[in-house]
Design brief:
Bound molecules: nicotinamide-adenine-dinucleotide
Largest sheet: 6 strands, parallel
Number of domains: 2
CATH architecture of the largest domain: 3-Layer(aba) Sandwich
Number of helices: 10
CATH topology of the largest domain: Rossmann fold
CATH superfamily of the largest domain: NAD(P)-binding Rossmann-like Domain
Amino acid sequence: MQIIDGKAISQQIKDEVRDKVAALKEQGKEVALAVILVGNDPASTVYVGNKKKACAYTGIRSESFELPEETTQEELLSLIDDLNNREDIQGILVQLPLPKHIDEKSVINAISPDKDVDGFHPQSVGRLTIGEPGFLSCTPAGIIQLLKRSNIEMEGKHCVVIGRSNIVGKPMALLMLRENATVTICHSRTKDLKEITKQADILIAAVGKPKMIDRSYLKEGVVVIDVGIHRMEDKKLCGDVDFEDVKDMCSAITPVPGGVGPMTIAMLMKNCADSVSL
Ligand code: NAD
């Protein structure tokens, strides 16, 4: 059984980004990311801090906009408009979730598709759907990298994705399709879930339910990708998969922590660097 090392693979990607950013600098081109945080949600503050750290590591200049909770939608949209027009900013990231009085959809739609490094803009999603190049949603794109760099074949394999969210499940299914897998999407209204998951060669769990997937969902030899992240009462992290229960049935599996988690920020850095051509 192979434990897929997301920490090592994400480090590899960050190092590749650092090399590319350095090569761009030699040509006089700088890569800069604007990071917008509204309010002081503790988890979001940690995520934004980690993104800024990754920027510092890779040589991407990060410009931080930490706005008060009371910021109006108009004020936020006006900042995005300024950033869209600035030639010295290549990527714009708005940390989600936003305070309730701000409409997330309007904010995502306001970001110029050329600077949409999170890959959430409808144009980025549309490009992914019809197979044109564009920014890819970071977590699913990171999962493709985990599989490729672990030499796990996707072509012709039956990939079952559990979850259909716009940020994980749906783009994940589309990316697996692009890799020529045969894809099934399951969700909260799926009937006989286990009957379907037991057919999976590659199972991607993005359900948001701690340790829901135990061995009764799997066939022998499956590759399991666990997207879930949950903090348990004992403060330990766990995924959507019951790792200890399933590990001896899998040919490969991502652990939590240290699997999918570290890939998201690495792919964000890659999206930033890829927004500028060498
Ligand atoms: P979400 O709540 O938006 O979506 C969950 C999906 O699971 C839904 O589409 C729902 O239909 C499906 N679902 C719920 N209960 C189900 C059930 N009993 N059977 C089958 N399907 C069911 O969550 P999300 O934003 O897609 O995130 C999923 C998980 O991944 C969460 O644990 C989240 O914390 C984690 N996550 C991790 C990263 C990362 O960087 N590693 C990034 C994003 C999300």
